[in-house]
UniProtKB/TrEMBL annotation:
Name of the protein this chain belongs to: Permease
Alphabetical UniProt keywords: Membrane, Transmembrane, Transmembrane helix
TM regions (residue ranges): 29-53, 197-219, 240-265, 285-309, 330-349, 355-376, 409-430, 600-622, 650-675, 687-707
Amino acid sequence: MQERARTAGKLFRIGLAAGRSTPGDRLRWWGLFCAAAAVAFVTLATAATVATYHGRETRADARGPVITFSKDATLLYREGIDSVGSRPVAIVFVHPLTPEAPLPAGVARWPDPGEVLLSPELVRTGRGEGILNRYGRFAGTITNDGLVTPSERIAYVRVADSPPKGDPRWMGVSAFGSGGGATGEMADQPSLASPVLALWALAGLPALALAVVAARVGSRTRDRRSSLLQALGGTWRHRMIVNIGEAAIPAALGTLTAFVPYAAASVRDTRLAPTGYILDHRDVWAEWPAALASAAVSLLVVLGIVVGTHRIARDGTSTRPASFTSRVPAWRLVACGVGVALVLTSQYVPRKAQLVVFTCGTVVMWAFLSSVVALLTRHLGSWLAANGKRRGHAGRMIGGRWTHAHPGVIVRLALAMVIGIGIVAQMQVWTSRLGVHSQAAVATHQRIKDTVIEVTASGMTAPETDRFRSSLPSGSILLNRTFYDPGASRDPWTTIGGSCRDLRKLHVACDGDARALTGSSAQLAKVEEMRRWYGDLRFTQVPRISVKPDGTQSLLVVTPAPGQLAAVKQAAFTLPNPSVQVEALGGNWLGSSRSRLPNWIQLFGVTGILFILVAGSMSAAAEFVRVRHALAPLSVLTGHRRVFRSVTSWHLTVPLLISTVVTGAVTAWHSVFFIALVQEGSVSWTILGYGITACAAVSLTVGSLGARAASREANQWRPTAD
């Protein structure tokens, strides 16, 4: 046992020494450092996500109301919604029945009648829209104990007057802390699997790709060392110890570096741009034990990649390394096929599992697609070598032979482009998944801004409507909207009612005719937007406006200029016992959770693209080092330097261009299939074309820079006894 320990220690020290003296050791050292930091960063982000979900659910349960239908209720409770900008706001209306009325977490005391408690983020973002006075007099803020997240926008409003008896919207509450509260951000919270899958698909896969590329930088020397160890009788354990010793220090330092942002997020609330979401530092702090374990696992994964990418033949009959640079392992091709199969079969699994199966298949397919490309280019290399030999083209022959002998080089170079195009395409497709209504709301907002405002109320008498009209901004038009559905006999229609004077301001006839009069293009545009949202539209003269409580009617406020939505909300919420929802035309779709999805996709996708850029740069730099030394003697044999450009073109540029074409075709198919699966979204062929063009330009640049590096090395090359 002691002899084994001494042997292991010697081999580990050999690995440490090799890491400091191997050609290209600086590039690989920094590569492993960055790779370990990237993998640990994604792993720690996953731990923080799990902790955040647990903390959100705990705080939501602490403020969840215990609903009662008996006379034990000591508080009346009702929920409402609003928005600040395009972000939703949760409103909780309360009316304590006794001085001992229960309090939710985060609230020290109920405010006086007509006063309101606001969350800090709502105060910060809504101050410019008059949020401090919109629902009542500002009486203070809600503490973080009563917020799902510090970025939550929520208000507790104590109504000024007692709610009407028998109103079914008011619920009796006997206590708080029921569990399962779905107020505020919890109302549309996705499952934990959604952000974790997106994180690993868009950032985790590039981090693992970076680890593979970093592990194989300067691999020729390590492959020869492994063969020597095998020839001396060493086993796979001995080779593993040496490889781990060589990679341990940069990988460990990279993993420790990834703790810097995690430590910062555990002591201070952190806002995640561009989402606006604020991580609660208490959740991150509580997850430190799991974070340490996760980081240890990520370090083992990186070291496992280092060991797994430096394997040799196990039969003992040859000392020649059987590494990935000499052939494409069949299991990688099978893995790519499995990924494609998962994508294809995702449409046949249960609906809830379709997106999970599709995402898993996508990750596997993109991870191993470059191996399929390498197999194609390896066969291409054989053909190029034979063709160059027949035609006497030295550059084509040498480039073809190199491509055939070293497909792993193409894999590492193509990996960044393959995954990069895939990430960009997925970001675009997911961003386009706003749905028909959200896209229509965005278009409406671009055309008329917030000049048409819908006020949904459970019922308003004519005096209340008159009071509401008097509080509106000067020049506003108040209309009544009524929806009629006659059933199967006729198609439904919508009637817009108002005084003849108001209708004429809209340049609409007062005689019940749906036609619009000739007039201001701005006013006609507002009428046209109403038609887009309400369908068959008719206008009628109404002497006095009111709202029936049956849900078929609502109010429309048409303002003379944009930017007056906050003033309309102020007028609506100051009515007695406010029970209204005020939104610009289509505004409820602008504030939906799906409209914020692109921000999260952008956050994860940009992080993954940064990892891919590092992987691509490192792979190209390593290839320049290899090509520079290998090509330099050719200038002596050929007598000219055009051979450098020819060899690098056939060995690097042509295979990478083929990778770009194959990746573009697969990306187009994959994007179209995804849209067919979820039945929404669109493919931007322009963005895909830009991505393919950029990768083609990179392919040309890599070949050109490789030739230039070899040409410079030829000026200094001298024969050596190696």
